User: What shape does this take?
Amino acid sequence: AQTVTQSQPEMSVQEAETVTLSCTYDTSENNYYLFWYKQPPSRQMILVIRQEAYKQQNATENRFSVNFQKAAKSFSLKISDSQLGDTAMYFCAFMKGGGSQGNLIFGKGTKLSVKP
Amino acid sequence: SAVISQKPSRDICQRGTSLTIQCQVDSQVTMMFWYRQQPGQSLTLIATANQGSEATYESGFVIDKFPISRPNLTFSTLTVSNLSPEDSSIYLCSVEDPRTGVQHFGDGTRLSIL
Assistant: This one.
């Protein structure tokens, strides 16, 4: 069975600084996707970034980038130039590939606070 | 990405009653998913709802407690039956974009039980 571990329950960062959120996972699959979702207090789950396991290049989306280490089964999220609006719960998630598999496996989340 | 509307956004219910949550998508989708997020916890998949067939439930979730309907390709409902305080959670529906594997979520329903 797949598992996703986020070892940092809470983190804080000063506005405009850079922060890295950690995520490790365990799977025997070779084809899968990894995601970071953001959940602000409004509770909506918002996709931040997506990585396909077969791609060696790390995904980037504006200020958000990942460090995907497949051999180490590590998938960290780096937020550059942190903004107050980045304050939220961040969830790392895993999904098997090979067609519509559905089941997203989530980590327990990291609560990020961006301080002015 | 698909626009997902979920109703109600919140509700407070009495013990022993039931609540039906609706999820409407602005485009046809094959698979819809229902998740539960207990207070301070992560999301757990309840079931997968395909149009024209019975929902597939994850371990620990049963149809009698969480009946699901999927009458067409744009709509689904989740009912939480015989409510107890342990059912106080946020319930979220999601749909998968088959081109990318990304699941997009509705805004969630916050359910509290008196």
